[in-house]
Amino acid sequence: MEEGKSDANLDVDPELQEIYADMEIMKERFAKLLLGEDMSGGGKGVSSALALSNAITNLAASVFGEISQLEPMSPDSKARWRKEIDWLLSVTDHIVEFVPSKQNTNGIMMEIMITRQRSDVRGNIPALKKLDGMLLECLDNFKDQNEFTYVPKDNAGSKSSKKREDDKWWLPTPKVPPNGLSDLTRRWLNFQKDSANQVLKAAMAMNAHILTEMEIPETYIESLPKNGRASLGDTIYKNITVDHFDPDNFLAAMDLTSEHKILDLKNRIEASVVIWRRKMTNKDGKSGWGSGVSIEKREQFEDRAETILLILKHRYPGISQSALDVSKIENNRDVGHAVLESYSRVLESLAHKVMSRIEDVLHADNLVKNPSGDLKRNSLKDSASRASGKFPNAKEELEKINYANAPTSMTLSDFMGWTLEQENESKEDLSNGNEIAKLGKQTSATNSKKLSYIERLETLGGRSPSSRQ
């Protein structure tokens, strides 16, 4: 009888049911972390750092998936992501470091050591959460648009579906009006693309920095050949050691037509960098790593190789992880690094997917407006064509996001009002002859941004990844 009353109380209290369900899920998640994913309990599981990294990666894959089209996340998926990622990030609240402090004891000032959250975690987790929120808002902004739809993947009647013959043909194809997208919608899509690109560059820079802080595993070093030439191969070695080196000419001579070939080149170059760096540290010649190449030449070759790696990372952000990165992640024992690396990596991947879906729609619009144009589209070429300038810096990208004049998130209706407001302000400035004053304001704002950014980081309780020692 009492059991029946208890069941009845649960039936009339959905909030309590939800709490119990969350508790069961939380028990399951943290049981896997404590067991190191070895459900037999035999102690053969992975490290805590790798288990946590895998948990964040698997959660993102389960919630977001491929992102096949531009639409808001379902309320259940969004709630699940926010709830479970907070569970996993809660581990970082207990990653601490000792810092000096002063304490007044009976009128005597004494210097003591206290604990606080580790500086890299304290500074970077809030920044990553902000990037996370920006991406979710970007997807939410597509709830009001009705100018383009999607054709199912098995619909062969769509002309634009031909572009998927060699580029993720399984995704649904965007369908735009017969006359193409309106100018306002196209501008709004480009605005959303720029917002996602900001997140991509910031997450990419942060992830690259965290990976550089991870130690190179001995297992990776043992697998390397004894010299850079053997790692690169004769052709690549010759192109990278010429007297007059140009990275663009080097990449133009390489076969980068597929992800596999790009990844193979990246693996070879990263291996050669590690080899050359180790040789430069073993200057006594007692090691078997020694050779007849001078230290100055090795430094020059290493610098060239690292330049190529930065360009490849910048041009092809959606590429798979290199052998060195995978080895670092699998052998890493620092839980803080594991969380920052995996969280920034899934955000980088998500931002890249959002940008790709936006480019799909813009490409479909181009096909309608230019029927005689090329019907095929290659995601690798698109990534290379949109990459320009130097590799992003985490501090600079976060500064741009925090102090951009334009809002970082806008629905189509918001964008319509914002563009009209901007146009009216420009007309008023021109009519009143205030263009010089306007430029002066922009210059002073730019000069004050750097100081404001430092202050903003201090209020968040840490430093940017690029400034961390």
Task: Report what the structure shows.
With 469 residues, the chain is mainly alpha-helical. 62% of the residues lie in helices and 6% in strands. It contains 18 helices and 4 strands. It has helices at 2-11, 14-35, 48-64, 75-89, 119-140, 183-213, 218-222, 228-232, 234-240, 247-253, 259-281, 295-315, 323-331, 335-369, 379-386, 394-402, 412-431, 435-460; strands spanning 96-105, 108-117, 149-151, 173-175. Strands 1-2 form a two-stranded antiparallel ribbon. The chain is globular and about 65 Å long.
* Major sheet summary line: 2 strands, antiparallel
Low-confidence stretches: 159-166, 283-290, 434-469
Query: What spatial order of strands do you see in the largest sheet?
Result: 1-2
Secondary-structure-based class equals mainly alpha
Globular, elongated, flat, extended or rod-shaped: what is the shape?
globular
